[in-house]
Amino acid sequence: MKPWFFLPGFMGNSHDFNHLAEAMGLPAPVFWQWPEVDAPVSFEHYAQLAWQHFRAQLPAQFSLYAYSMGGRIASFWWRYDDFQQRCQALVIAGSHPGLAEAQARLQRAQHDARWVQAFASQPLCDVLQRWYQQPVFASLSGQQKARQIANKLQRSGVAYAQILQSASLAHQPLLGDSWRAEPRLSYVAGELDEKFLTLAQQYCCEHQLIRIADCGHMAHWEKPAALADALATRFNTGNNDR
């Protein structure tokens, strides 16, 4: 396998994957986080900006584990010839394929707009406390949530607001229809993460799906050893040097 790199979710950075990298026998990932923008841009523009930033650390060929928003962005990168030629394996984890219905996109836009306003105008710690009360994070313990919040206080709420508005699911194209046809793509879903496990079953072939037992939305955080074992089994990698 080609060397592994890691793409975080919204508000995350590559150090979110330190425990997974260790379990895979890899060094800690080189630091990377989502680029800030001065004003909201389109999803397509933000994806292109992120690729320009991310590709600078990549070798000629690589494997990529991309979580949540990272998986959504990486799915869009499949449209780039450069990404297609260089990415030898893409593992997306807990990522949404996109919203097909206009009403669903409108509702998501309204939902995200409320969060954007909160991040831009309210104390960041308070907003993060509410963020991690969302059902998708229900499998995290109180201590795990507290660590997530502490890690996310390193940037400003305004920066998060601009990133969220630019990369909102409401503005993402429908990308999941191409997942089944891509032999290099796998999808990680925790068995307790019912929403995204259902989406994975809808948009992926069964052989593409990597299920992590007793795990919710954040497999790399909740069950890094089990995830590393599953990836080693899928890709016959064992412990690799990056």
UniProtKB/TrEMBL annotation:
<keyword id="KW-0474">Menaquinone biosynthesis</keyword>
<dbReference type="InterPro" id="IPR029058">
    <property type="entry name" value="AB_hydrolase_fold"/>
</dbReference>
<dbReference type="InterPro" id="IPR000073">
    <property type="entry name" value="AB_hydrolase_1"/>
</dbReference>
<dbReference type="Pfam" id="PF12697">
    <property type="entry name" value="Abhydrolase_6"/>
</dbReference>
<keyword id="KW-0456">Lyase</keyword>
<feature type="domain" description="AB hydrolase-1">
    <location>
        <begin position="6"/>
        <end position="230"/>
    </location>
</feature>
<dbReference type="GO" id="GO:0009234">
    <property type="term" value="P:menaquinone biosynthetic process"/>
</dbReference>
<dbReference type="GO" id="GO:0016829">
    <property type="term" value="F:lyase activity"/>
</dbReference>
<protein>
    <submittedName>
        <fullName>2-succinyl-6-hydroxy-2, 4-cyclohexadiene-1-carboxylate synthase</fullName>
    </submittedName>
</protein>
